[in-house]
Amino acid sequence: MGKDYQGDVDSNLQKLQKGIQHDGLKAILEEVYSRNPEQAEFLQAVRGMALSIAPVFEKHPEYLPAFRMLTEPERQVIFRVPWVDDAGVWQMNRGMRVQFSSAIGPYKGGLRFHPSVTLSIIKFLGFEQIFKNALTTLPMGGGKGGADFDPKGRSDSEIMRFCQSFMTELYRHIGSDTDVPAGDIGVGGREIGYMYGQYKRITRDRAGVLTGKGMGWGGSEIRPEATGYGVVFLAEYLLADRGDSLEGKRCLVSGSGNVAQYCVELLLEKGAVVLSMSDSRGMIYAPEGLSREDLAAVMKLKSQHDGKLEDLELEGVEYRGDAAQPWFLDTEVFGAFPCATQNELGEEAAKALVKHGVQIVLEGANMPCTLEAEEVFTAAEGVAFVTGKASNAGGVAVSGLEMAQNRSFVPWSREDVTTKLQGIMKAIYDDITGAAAEYDTDLINGANIASFEKVAKAVLAQGAV
Ligand SMILES: NC(=O)C1=CN([C@@H]2O[C@H](COP(=O)(O)OP(=O)(O)OC[C@H]3O[C@@H](n4cnc5c(N)ncnc54)[C@H](O)[C@@H]3O)[C@@H](O)[C@H]2O)C=CC1
Ligand SMILES: O=C(O)CCC(=O)C(=O)O
């Protein structure tokens, strides 16, 4: 994944700078490359941003130093996470937290527990988070963390001991005014609970230092649903602008975790026909569309540890193994919603989707489409592509609302939070279309420009700190 930038040094630097004419920007990319030559995913995220914002420097050359600052985290912490498994064997993982930018507020972003976690992955996620959070309209900076821990096959007690050990180090680096982590892949309500409990025990501080907490102990209504719902709200605003709606539209969704589940739930509520969901082993395909009962079965399965889609037996639903992906289905499709993981949708997949008539692509996951796939979508006639920085910002937005509720000591109703989430997704849509119109460009560039300009102004105002 994202391996394109590895290998021969010179040609990779050239690849990183390909298509960038601006000398100052090229110099920044050279510096980023020389500092992080092995970090393929991070370089991919920086290149994506650089490609979009190059025109901004024609209008605002003063923003260039701000971009340079934003390519280096303010702080990154890497630590050992020792724990003991159920058999009494000592285990050890690597934990990390990258505090990327506090220009517009406390560092904010999830924690990922997955064996594939590397510094490059956490840095790409933290870098993207800076700009996503700026789009939410809430005062949140960008950060991300995690560990190369594999929760698969681990008992509840092992997960608890791991989370407690992880927090025993992380607690000293976070705080409700400095850095507020949340969930991501492999970190849901259960893990947040164990980490919050440990944080509280060590610090005696009940402040909302983690978001994604449970209802009844500081959590917000609709935080679990917020990322997936936000994607669908944004799709609705986009289609409304075209005088269209999701009713009856054939949609492909990948993934079957938190984001995918609630994306499918709201798509079904809006009358869309959802043809697929997937996990790392394969996918389910429903030629006539998944029903609410099918989704309920997926949710139940995935709430159990190690639930695999291949174990489902649902009428009218086929299972395809060997890591089959929805994008290659030989069927007409209107919408694609990649909600699994980074670089899951490459150039060939994008071509297959365009061939099958795709009209809208909204990223539920972070950076699920490669830069080559993005190029295919933007070159195709009439296809609207929305980058995850905008389309999946609903999750962190409701995390921000959870922080506001924790501060005010007053929980808000489900209706209140839903209305606020819709307002934020609409503001994001208006912001990215506004920037796209101002710079006469597409929605990817619109999102990157709108978010960068907000952060750059804050960085410049605060000086070289
Ligand atoms: N949870 C949240 O609030 C937010 C999550 N995201 C992003 O959404 C994506 C999914 O995260 P969650 O649903 O929260 O995680 P989760 O842990 O609930 O689910 C993980 C999902 O990724 C899939 N997956 C992992 N590796 C895969 C692979 N190699 N091939 C196919 N599928 C694979 C799993 O099957 C599952 O659907 C990630 O990119 C995450 O960074 C983005 C914004 C907010
Ligand atoms: O809710 C949060 O703070 C972060 C969610 C997240 O990790 C993301 O937006 O990618």
Automatic annotation (TrEMBL):
<feature type="binding site">
    <location>
        <position position="183"/>
    </location>
    <ligand>
        <name>substrate</name>
    </ligand>
</feature>
<protein>
    <recommendedName>
        <fullName>Glutamate dehydrogenase</fullName>
    </recommendedName>
</protein>
<feature type="binding site">
    <location>
        <position position="108"/>
    </location>
    <ligand>
        <name>substrate</name>
    </ligand>
</feature>
<dbReference type="Pfam" id="PF02812">
    <property type="entry name" value="ELFV_dehydrog_N"/>
</dbReference>
<feature type="binding site">
    <location>
        <position position="399"/>
    </location>
    <ligand>
        <name>substrate</name>
    </ligand>
</feature>
<dbReference type="InterPro" id="IPR006096">
    <property type="entry name" value="Glu/Leu/Phe/Val/Trp_DH_C"/>
</dbReference>
<keyword id="KW-0560">Oxidoreductase</keyword>
<feature type="binding site">
    <location>
        <position position="132"/>
    </location>
    <ligand>
        <name>substrate</name>
    </ligand>
</feature>
<dbReference type="InterPro" id="IPR006095">
    <property type="entry name" value="Glu/Leu/Phe/Val/Trp_DH"/>
</dbReference>
<dbReference type="InterPro" id="IPR006097">
    <property type="entry name" value="Glu/Leu/Phe/Val/Trp_DH_dimer"/>
</dbReference>
<feature type="binding site">
    <location>
        <position position="258"/>
    </location>
    <ligand>
        <name>NAD(+)</name>
    </ligand>
</feature>
<dbReference type="GO" id="GO:0000166">
    <property type="term" value="F:nucleotide binding"/>
</dbReference>
<feature type="binding site">
    <location>
        <position position="129"/>
    </location>
    <ligand>
        <name>substrate</name>
    </ligand>
</feature>
<feature type="domain" description="Glutamate/phenylalanine/leucine/valine/L-tryptophan dehydrogenase C-terminal">
    <location>
        <begin position="220"/>
        <end position="463"/>
    </location>
</feature>
<keyword id="KW-0547">Nucleotide-binding</keyword>
<comment type="subunit">
    <text>Homohexamer.</text>
</comment>
<dbReference type="GO" id="GO:0006537">
    <property type="term" value="P:glutamate biosynthetic process"/>
</dbReference>
<feature type="site" description="Important for catalysis">
    <location>
        <position position="184"/>
    </location>
</feature>
<keyword id="KW-0520">NAD</keyword>
<feature type="active site" description="Proton donor">
    <location>
        <position position="144"/>
    </location>
</feature>
<comment type="similarity">
    <text>Belongs to the Glu/Leu/Phe/Val dehydrogenases family.</text>
</comment>
<dbReference type="InterPro" id="IPR033524">
    <property type="entry name" value="Glu/Leu/Phe/Val_DH_AS"/>
</dbReference>
<dbReference type="InterPro" id="IPR014362">
    <property type="entry name" value="Glu_DH"/>
</dbReference>
<dbReference type="InterPro" id="IPR050724">
    <property type="entry name" value="Glu_Leu_Phe_Val_DH"/>
</dbReference>
<dbReference type="InterPro" id="IPR036291">
    <property type="entry name" value="NAD(P)-bd_dom_sf"/>
</dbReference>
<dbReference type="GO" id="GO:0004354">
    <property type="term" value="F:glutamate dehydrogenase (NADP+) activity"/>
</dbReference>
<dbReference type="Pfam" id="PF00208">
    <property type="entry name" value="ELFV_dehydrog"/>
</dbReference>
<dbReference type="InterPro" id="IPR046346">
    <property type="entry name" value="Aminoacid_DH-like_N_sf"/>
</dbReference>
<dbReference type="GO" id="GO:0005829">
    <property type="term" value="C:cytosol"/>
</dbReference>
<feature type="binding site">
    <location>
        <position position="227"/>
    </location>
    <ligand>
        <name>NAD(+)</name>
    </ligand>
</feature>
